[in-house]
Amino acid sequence: MTRRIWSPYVSHAALYLPRLPIVTILNSPTAAGTSSAASVLADATSSDASLRRFLHGLPGVDQVGAEGRAAGLGARSIKTTAKAYAIDLAIRMVDLTTLEGNDTPGKVRALCSKAVHPDPADPSCPSAAAVCVYPDMVPFAAEALGTSPSTGSGQAAVHIAAVATAFPSGRAAMDIKLADTRHAVDAGAHEIDMVIDRGAFLSGRYLEVYDEIVQVKEACARPDGQSAHLKVIFETGELQTYDNVRRASWLAMLAGADFIKTSTGKIQPAATLPVTLVMLEAVRDFRELTGAMIGVKPAGGIRTSKDAIKYLVMVNEVAGPDWLDPEKFRFGASTLLNDLLMQRTKIQTGRYSGPDYFTLD
Amino acid sequence: MVSTSSTTAGTSSTTAGASSTTAGASSATGGPFTYAPAPESRSVVDIRSSYGLFVNGEFTEGHGKAFKTISPATEEVLAEVAEADEADVDAAIRSARRAYTRVWSRMSGAERAKYLFRIARIIQERSRELAVLESIDNGKPIKESRDVDIPTAAAHFFYYAGWADKLEHAGYGADPQPLGVAAQVIPWNFPFLMLAWKIAPALACGNTVVLKPAETTPLTALLFAEICQQADLPPGVVNIITGAGETGRALVGHPDADKVAFTGSTDVGRAIAKSVAGSRKKVTLELGGKAANIVFDDAPVDQAVEGIVNGIFFNQGHVCCAGSRLLVQESVADEVVERLKRRMATLRVGDPLDKNTDVGAINSAEQLAKIRELSEIGESEGAGRWSPPCELPDHGFWFAPTIFTGVSQAHRIAREEIFGPVLSILTFRTPKEAVEKANNTPYGLSAGIWTDKGSRILWMADQLRAGVVWANTFNRFDPASPFGGYKESGYGREGGRHGLEGYLAV
Lengths: 361, 506
What we know:
The structure holds two protein chains of two kinds. Chain A has helices spanning 12-16, 31-44, 48-56, 63-74, 80-92, 105-116, 138-146, 174-186, 198-202, 206-219, 236-239, 242-255, 273-290, 305-319, 336-349; strands at 94-97, 130-133, 159-164, 191-195, 229-233, 259-261, 295-297, 331-333. Chain A is an alpha/beta fold. In chain A, strands 7-6-5-4-3-2-1-8 form an eight-stranded parallel beta sheet. Chain B has two domains: 53-287 and 486-501, Aldehyde Dehydrogenase, Chain A, domain 1 (3-Layer(aba) Sandwich); 292-471, Aldehyde Dehydrogenase, Chain A, domain 2 (3-Layer(aba) Sandwich). The chains are: A alpha/beta, B alpha/beta.
């Protein structure tokens, strides 16, 4: 069946670009469909000018409408069995994070043990998805997690995510950023959380940002032929507009990001529901166009189970249930996990327990 | 399509578990994220087995034939309601006249404001009760009655309370006078909100009222009568009489009514206009609509899809200003329809009291029959009908959200008001053509424009013959904003400073 699908080349972009078959790409995973999409996307990144036209040809985001939709989804009422499901899923999606100047091997070891057994009192509690640390802490995390078996019942081992590329500002020379990345990968990081150069993005040097992501992606390669997963952080609090968030999302996906991530957690506002909404729409549309599923990670400012559930509802209804998987959606958080655990215990026992019953790390 | 179905038996207690199922593909990897039933409790509402008329501050027996009001979601009988005959209407009007001459017209604006502010606050305090009752009697989702109907109704009372002592600054002369007794007839789609739209400005201007709610949705108006008692409103200032068409006819035709305000169908509005012609009565009518929601190729497409959904599926499409005609630029039509379908598949249809329900029950069997009839006509006229896969509850009145593609101006579903969750999709090529098609209707209540180009919004808004034009949004209501129609959508404005005019002798 052929059907016309949404194309980023609406209206004005079509004026500049050569007439491309993208507007009538077959929306099926056939070679013809994906290859023509691929050629169009390759064309979009061929020069700074064409990349700019592509990104500015994306449909706009109406701020009021996007925030209204996010608020509407946030008003869903998730109770009983649905809540229990959502909380366990959210725990499995947490990237348990410590990104402080005073991080020590001891702190990281404690974090790792928390990630593997979030609730030592309850073996049925799933592990977190990953720990997220600075590159120099990766060896200690690898050591702590290295031999740790999966926690049983078929759950995957806890991954190590490392922030790289001169996190959080990204203000360093390119070779330093690449060395930073390689160092983390060599030390055993499974996932790299890079920051984009917001200065370059805001001054319109999109191709520079694109190239940077491409190079970091190459630096994620491991000798065994595998590659660390790349999460691209936009620092949406600095990009400010939803139009910018949508453009950054497409830019990163074109450059080969495995995940797109809102924030470093060092800038306010960090993750918000509307920003995440725009990013979820972008990954949904990218999959329609290319078949590739890119993950989304809101990070920073998500502290309560109630917040986390709002995000999961949004994932479910905007991107679709396929994204309800730790491989495709993560929470970058530190304090969220304990609130999830408290709610989980409340559901199981019917009683609220105090924060003293949950570990601090 | 996700359907949340529930059966609720008996007014007293038993609420059978609402079940919710996800149709269509669910993820193999993530497992199904099925929303468990989240029903709002009915215990906050105390529905009496029978209700009288509210005349002169007291509940009295009606002399007509009592009728039953049912829950459209379950067809359960909620209460028996008195029918006002001509004598009852006369008593109500006399009570309103007495209150007008002896109390209300002599009271200062500041004093009237005190009562209105008090009513507004009681509405807020009892908002949950009102919302639940509204959803039970009307069938609309609790999230709408809770987040839209009741808060906006309270906002109208607050807003007009503020005008009561400032009428000389409203632009209607140095000392504008009230009209006297207002006869008001309201529809079933927003029972409590329409009551607020009618009563708040009337009282603020110094009039007294006799209001008749629709026969299928009288309960929140009768609860409002209790609120008037609670607020110590002088007897007779607000009178609520129940009944159907006959009662309404007697009310608007009563020789001692100074003002007639009606919201409802164009046919009934026309009959009212005829019946009051040649009398001294001042009339405002807010009637039907067939609004165009116009989507240009440069629209913020995801928000436009939300706006289309909100425009036609809000309140099951029982909205006089619903965006029931989607005019989409041909170059993006397929894309917009695809996105709309995907979005419609996530609408949750079912139990109005479930907090996750997006689309509730059709208000009555009669209305359901009308929606079905027009939808079948649409199909027989050759338009492409589509609904998401959808399990509807066995009892009650239900209609799946429906779109028709390939509709032209010549189709009946593009011309007649369906007043249900049914969208007709037409295309256009240029802004000029969009304006021509949008205006090519006997109605003119509202319109929507979706584009990123500000200058085009302003140009379109100038050209469209519609009382309300929304830009990059739809179905937004605010007490400060006047609302009303062009052409056969009625005359007069409600809301805002303009809304005062209909209740002042100017």
